[in-house]
Amino acid sequence: MSFWRGLWGRFDPGKGQEYLIEALALLRHEGLPIEILLLGEETKGEEGRYLPYLKKQVQQKGLEPFVHFRPFTRQIAQAYASLDVFCMTSKAETFGMVTVEAMASGLPVIGTASGGTPELIQAEETGILIPPLDAKALARAIAYLYQNPEKAQRMGLSAQASVEARFHYRVQVAQTQALLQKLMERL
After folding, report:
1. Nearest to 120 by CA among 82, 165, 80
2. Which residues pair with 74 in a beta bridge?
3. DSSP letters of 123-177?
4. Which of 23, 21, 17 is nearest to 50 (CA)?
5. Which residues are within 8 A (CB) of 21 and not within 5 positions of it... i.e. 6 or more apart?
6. Rounded to whole angstroms, how far apart are CA atoms 30 and 91?
7. Residue % of the chain over a pLDDT of 90
8. Averaged over 60-80, what is the pLDDT?
9. Which of these, 34, 150, 153, 176, could form a disulfide with 27 (CB 3.0-4.6 Å)?
10. The pTM is what?
């Protein structure tokens, strides 16, 4: 049975999909039954550049049976449900909506310790933080979650609870109301 990891968003060098492909090569070399789902579209104005590069990397590494490229879909809940782990490999991400969506879906997230991602992922609680641009660290994190499914499940449940507590619309409305009340009191 394969262990599925995924990443979605724009196919763009800044999103770091190439590091996930390199990590997959390392993991397959170790004999781990890992596959990846890459879902998204190319960056507008950059079509025909990065996606063909990624596909060439997959081909050169002999990973075609294990890497699944798919266009963006509106059935995002089903896409998340098909995964065991979500990987956020951006070099720097201010606020990764896909990270929050994956966490809300009950997935542990492996994310780069850059930009706003460390504010979303509680290390070793809701996911794993890795250095950006580090395929070996990404491979180690994936292998760890594959080899520790109970820990991965606990992280996913904690991730889901964290998003519910911090980003549910009721929480956001209450925080906005409190802020507006404070501002009104100053007038």
Report:
1. 165
2. none
3. BTTTEEEE-TT-HHHHHHHHHHHHH-HHHHHHHHHHHHHHHHHHH-HHHHHHHHH
4. 17
5. 36, 54, 57, 58, 61, 63, 67
6. 26
7. 77
8. 94
9. 34
10. 0.90
Looking up tokens 């929050």, which residue turns up?
Answer: 100
> What are the CA-CA distances from residue 145 to residues 30, 76, 150, 186 (Å)?
15, 23, 9, 50
End-to-end CA distance of the chain, in Å?
Answer: 62
Tell me, what amino acid is at 52? P
What's 14's DSSP letter? G
Write the pLDDT tens digit of every residue in 110-165. 999 999 999 999 999 999 999 999 999 999 999 999 999 999 999 999 999 999 99
All structural domains of the chain: 3-186 (3.40.50.2000)
pLDDT band at 1 (very low <50, low <70, confident <90, very high): low
Output 25-33 pairs: Cβ under 8 A, ≥24 positions apart.
25/61, 25/63, 26/135, 26/136, 26/139, 27/139, 27/142, 27/143, 28/63, 28/66, 30/143, 32/3, 32/143, 32/146, 33/1, 33/2, 33/3
Run of H or E including 118: helix 117-120
CB contact at 8 A, 33 and 25: no
- In this structure, the number of other CB atoms found within 10 A of the CB of residue 162 comes to 19
